[in-house]
Design a protein that fits this description.
Elements (H helix, E strand, L loop, with lengths): L1 E5 L2 H18 L4 E4 L6 H14 L7 E4 L1 E3 L10 H8 L11 E2 L8 H14 L5 E4 L21 E4 L2 H11 L8 E4 L2 H5 L3 E6 L5 H9 L17 E6 H4 L5 H17 L12
Parallel strand pairs: 1-10, 2-3, 2-6, 3-5, 6-9, 9-10
Antiparallel strand pairs: 4-8, 7-8
Helix pairs in contact: 1-2
The structure holds fructose -6-phosphate (F6R).
Fructose -6-phosphate binds next to loops.
């Protein structure tokens, strides 16, 4: 895992947006996996700005969202479809036919979930999957106990997630109990995963995800098995990482490597 620690939410969001923009420039027809929630809002703002001011082109990009609440109409202000339009799609030049979000109103969910996985495969797989982190260590709606091999399916939200998401709905009673979500296995097939976590409330989940054992009780910990994961944190979210100074040094070395080549890291090169 590559751990990047930025001073705050804004800097972390900019850093994550730069990683995404780099991919979009390098591979204009890339496939992005997207997330909702409070975490990626700053990233979407920055991507919209890059489109507006720097001409970042999304016209050939395909997107797949991680999840959607069951029972919500796409016009419901708390549906993830509505969220994506409001915070990203309305502000960039994406082709609407290339947007994929699970349908929370499908009647035959088993069939729908199979076809969602099929669509991801047909698109060539996900190049970069953006992920937020739940306080209980979930990614997408893969709540504690979810199989680490799980595929897109229906999942029941835990009381903790219902409480966390009540802030968007106004009260706990209004939060849907079920969601359709990509599985951990689906996420692990993305070529790169970009996990974001900001704020003190995520510090414990971050520590367990990065430094704890791989366990279905913390589904994000399965990312330890993936060969290309970038974790972008702010100082508060990184505050409980035991090896955070080492991660900082690693990141500095990585930056020097990218800018100056391997010679910059050889013994005796510090002063040269
Ligand atoms: C959203 C999603 C969730 C959130 C997580 C964190 O599509 O899949 O896993 O990323 O619950 O939510 P926030 O960002 O609101 O703290």
């Amino acid at each position: 895992m590559r751990i990047i620690i930025e001073p705050d939410y804004e800097a972390g969001s900019r850093r994550a947006a730069q990683l995404i923009a780099h991919l979009v420039r390098q591979k204009p027809d890339c496939v992005l996996g997207l997330a909702t929630g409070g975490t990626p809002l700053g990233v979407y703002r920055e991507l919209a700005r890059m489109h507006r001011e720097e001409g970042l082109d999304f016209s050939r990009v395909t997107t797949f969202n991680l999840d959607e609440y069951v029972g919500l109409d796409p016009t419901h202000p708390q549906s993830y479809r509505f969220f994506m339009q409001q915070h990203l799609f309305d502000h960039i030049n994406i082709d609407p036919s290339r947007i994929n979000i699970p349908d929370g109103r499908a009647l035959d969910f088993e069939r729908f979930c199979r076809s969602y996985e099929e669509r991801i495969r047909e698109a060539g797989g996900i190049d970069l999957q953006l992920l937020g982190l739940g306080r209980d260590g979930h990614i997408a709606f893969n709540e504690p106990g979810s199989s680490l091999g799980s595929r897109t399916r229906l999942k029941m939200l835990t009381p903790e997630t219902i409480r966390d998401n009540a802030r968007f709905f106004g009260s706990e009673e209004l939060v849907p109990r079920l969601a359709v979500t990509m599985g951990v296995g689906t996420i692990l097939e993305a070529r790169r995963c970009l996990l974001l976590a900001f704020g003190e409330a995520k510090a414990d989940a971050v520590q367990r995800t990065v430094e704890g054992p791989v366990t279905a009780q913390v589904t994000a910990s399965a990312l330890q098995l993936h060969r290309d994961v970038v974790v972008v944190l702010d100082e508060a979210a990184a505050s409980r990482l035991e090896r955070r100074e080492y991660y900082r040094q690693m990141e500095q070395a990585q930056m020097r490597l990218e800018q100056e080549g391997i010679r910059a890291l050889l013994p005796g090169s510090e002063r040269s």
